[in-house]
Amino acid sequence: MTAASFLIALPAIAILLPILGAALSVIASRSARLQRVIGIAVLTLVTAIAAVLLVAADRNGPVVTELGGWPAPIGVVLVADRLSALLLLISTLVTLAVLVYAIDQRISDYGRETPSTTFHPIFLMLSTGVSMAYLTGDLFSLFVAFEIMLAASYVLITRRTDAARVRSGMTYVIVSLASSLLFLTTIALVYASTGTVNMADLAGRIGQLPPELATVLSLMAVVVFGIKAAIVPLHFWLPDSYPNAPAPVTALFAGLLTKVGIYALLRTQTLIFPHDRPSILLLSIAALTMIVGALGALAQNDLNRLLSFLLVSHIGFMLFGLAVFDVRGVAGTALYVVHHITVQATLFLVSGLITRRTGTVSIDAMGGLVKLSPGLAVLFAIPALTLAGIPPTSGFVAKLALLEAGAGAGVAGSVVAGVVIVASLLTLYAMARVWVRVFWGKPKEPLPDPDPFDELVVGTARTSAPMFVASAGLIAVSVLIAVAAGPLTEVTTRAGDDLIGRTPYVDAVLGVGAPGAGEPGVGR
């Protein structure tokens, strides 16, 4: 096998490895240690593959894999361009850190002694769905990727379940199934209208449809992926679903699943339904999402619900860059997604450490942790300041890119850029409120573990070293993003050029000179 053919095979290997790892985990179900080794080894290999794909895509253009030897648009293709390879890399790094954390928290086991036969296979299948969503080149395979993620996430959110978790899980599943049904309907309408579901092929065919039909299809895609990304007013399911899961599961969902929705919006709205000017509709939704999420966070006493509402708020930041619909805006969104994947996952992991020590998620029931655990205080402070966008963190770099894009997008863009600043200040206030109530004040005794025999150990009055290291590793990644802001911004800018220009993606999939790559799409 030549180097070129091996490179072409890497996108498929990135998807097949977690599937193979899941199968091996089932076979090794009697050995918890072997399951852990398999999971860590698979995710490490996928991380390395993602790094190679990112370098290759940045130097030479998208890496395209034709499955079964059938060329697009007839066959199914996998495409690793700058954006998908970058998000695959950061997502797999986060998944690896969360797995290390979960192993020490023992949610990978049934109870505290018996090895699990389900956690590791399902965890790896969730990783498969995420990788497939980033790399697929057609809408139907994207639908399959979402269904893999849905099935795996439902199992993870309801393991060792109680009534509250079943209710939240039902909300999550019902909303997800409704959005999947709408997604399938959208795919059917797109295929009926154009005769294809290949995204590169659709880049040329959607522009040939009547503008009204193209607009309807575009709005349907926004609703589908808006539900999965939890944009307002389609966000109602998230604050009720995520907080009830164990910390590593919530961290994985918050860090990855909503970002896959944002990625799908980025890909479809730039490649299939391109705009030639800022979208007032999306700008309005972005502003509403930022403010509603931030205000919702201020009303919470449950730490996980507070972080869930802040997650909703910052989805609005990413939507804002997309709504600008120019290279700077899309590049700013890509940079913000990279930053937010790490920081949001880190905050939920740190929340798990706080709960492990205090025995509660109630902010009012905590206090004085800075005296009891200075390291845990630092572990919370850094991602909290990063989320608020305080200089010189990665959050500041990403928000600055979005503000520059908004300032150049006319009056509407400048107004929403002002909302970005307001939402950032509200985020800072919410984080400061948590800091004052949880870390300052008189230390309080931890609440006892309500179930000493379940899989979650809480109320220990101590911090687990491996869980601490896993969280600190993600903080290190976030710091590295800030340190490497210059080169990373250059990569996301080139990715923005590709997304807005469309030609590199279309030419790589369909061949140089494919029709429609540079044609204007539907503007609103």
Could you explain the architecture of this structure?
The N and C termini lie far apart (48 Å). This protein has helices spanning 3-27, 32-60, 82-105, 119-135, 139-158, 163-194, 199-205, 211-229, 238-241, 247-272, 280-298, 303-324, 327-358, 369-372, 374-388, 394-407, 410-438, 465-483, 485-501, 503-510; strands at residues 63-66, 77-80, 109-110, 114-115. The relative contact order is 0.12. It has one domain (3-510). The protein is mainly α and 524 residues long. The strands form 2 sheets. Strands 1-2 form a two-stranded antiparallel sheet. A two-stranded antiparallel sheet has the order 3-4. Helix content is 73%, strand content 2%.
Topology summary:
Layout: H1 3-27, H2 32-60, E1 63-66, E2 77-80, H3 82-105, E3 109-110, E4 114-115, H4 119-135, H5 139-158, H6 163-194, H7 199-205, H8 211-229, H9 238-241, H10 247-272, H11 280-298, H12 303-324, H13 327-358, H14 369-372, H15 374-388, H16 394-407, H17 410-438, H18 465-483, H19 485-501, H20 503-510
Antiparallel strand pairs: 1-2, 3-4
Helix pairs in contact: 1-2, 1-4, 2-3, 2-4, 3-4, 3-10, 3-13, 3-18, 4-5, 5-6, 5-10, 6-8, 7-20, 8-10, 10-12, 10-13, 11-12, 11-17, 12-13, 12-16, 12-17, 13-15, 13-16, 13-18, 13-19, 15-17, 15-18, 16-17
